[in-house]
């Protein structure tokens, strides 16, 4: 029962006030912007790894300058902002508590998936009554499919640690190409590029 009250409380705190006619959700781009500003002003060593297909060994490794970090994170900054009512009204929110992960999970899904490029936005929150609840993970999915082909993005941001984007592209009549880019700034000693934490 305490978990139920906790989940209700977290949802009420995290989700902006809503009127009967106006939905307003959490702004993922705003959360990412805070992260970008932090990394921009830090002394972190920033590393980018590129993986082809299902390879577990990177095909390329780069060191990223702090002033280049915003450009690397650009796809995340372009995630549809659901705190704007014109966007929120096209989405629905689902919330649940995952006991195994010890996370409250807020998932935003389009009411009409065929009309939206953004197919999912998700936030994981670690409950902590002592220090305050903290967003730990952001997940987003985007699909663009037209006469020029298919582009699909699966995006994962681990706050204060790293992000990765898996891009699937397919030109008409050709096989799909899958590339994963992972950027790490505070997670060099303990990471698996293919693992969500």
Give me the secondary-structure topology:
Elements: H1 2-14, H2 28-40, E1 46-52, E2 60-64, H3 69-72, H4 74-77, H5 85-88, E3 91-98, E4 103-110, E5 118-126, E6 134-146, E7 149-158, E8 162-170, E9 177-184
Antiparallel strand pairs: 1-2, 1-9, 3-4, 4-5, 5-6, 6-7, 7-8, 8-9
Describe the structure.
The chain has one domain. The protein has helices at 2-14, 28-40, 69-72, 74-77, 85-88, and strands at residues 46-52, 60-64, 91-98, 103-110, 118-126, 134-146, 149-158, 162-170, 177-184. It is an alpha+beta fold. The chain has a nine-stranded antiparallel beta sheet with strand order 2-1-9-8-7-6-5-4-3, with helices on one face. It is globular. The protein is 19% helix and 39% strand.
Give the uncertain stretches in residue-range form: 1-8, 15-20, 190-197
Overall structural domain count: 1
Q: What Rg is obtained from the alpha carbons, in whole angstroms?
A: 18 Å
Q: Estimate the mean pLDDT confidence.
A: 86
Portion of residues in helices?
10-25%
Task: Name the assembly state.
Answer: single chain
Biggest beta sheet attributes: 9 strands, antiparallel
Count of β-strands: 9
What is the helix tally? 5
For the largest sheet, list the strands in their spatial order. Answer: 2-1-9-8-7-6-5-4-3
Instruction: Give the class from helix and strand content and strand pairing.
Output: alpha+beta
H/E element sequence:
HHEEHHHEEEEEEE
- Global geometry: globular
- Report the portion of residues in β strands: 35-45%
Instruction: Please give the alpha-carbon distance between the first and last residues.
Output: 27 Å
């Amino acid at each position: 029962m305490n978990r139920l009250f906790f989940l209700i409380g977290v949802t009420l705190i995290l989700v902006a006030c809503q009127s009967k006619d106006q939905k307003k959700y959490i702004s993922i781009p705003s959360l990412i912007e805070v992260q970008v500003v932090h990394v921009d002003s830090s002394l972190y060593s920033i590393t980018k790894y590129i993986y082809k297909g299902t390879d577990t060994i990177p095909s390329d490794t780069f060191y990223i300058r702090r002033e280049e970090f915003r450009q690397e994170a650009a796809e995340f900054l372009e995630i549809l902002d659901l705190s704007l009512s014109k966007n929120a009204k096209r989405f629905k929110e689902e919330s649940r508590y995952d006991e195994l992960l010890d996370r409250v999970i807020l998932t935003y899904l389009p009411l009409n998936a065929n009309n939206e490029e953004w197919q999912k936005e998700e936030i994981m929150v670690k409950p902590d009554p002592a220090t305050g609840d903290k967003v730990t993970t952001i997940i987003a999915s985007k699909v663009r499919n037209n006469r020029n082909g298919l582009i699909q993005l699966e995006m994962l941001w681990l706050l204060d640690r790293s992000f990765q984007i898996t891009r699937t592209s397919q030109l008409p009549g050709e096989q799909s190409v899958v590339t994963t880019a992972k950027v790490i700034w505070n997670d060099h000693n303990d990471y698996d590029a293919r693992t969500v934490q």
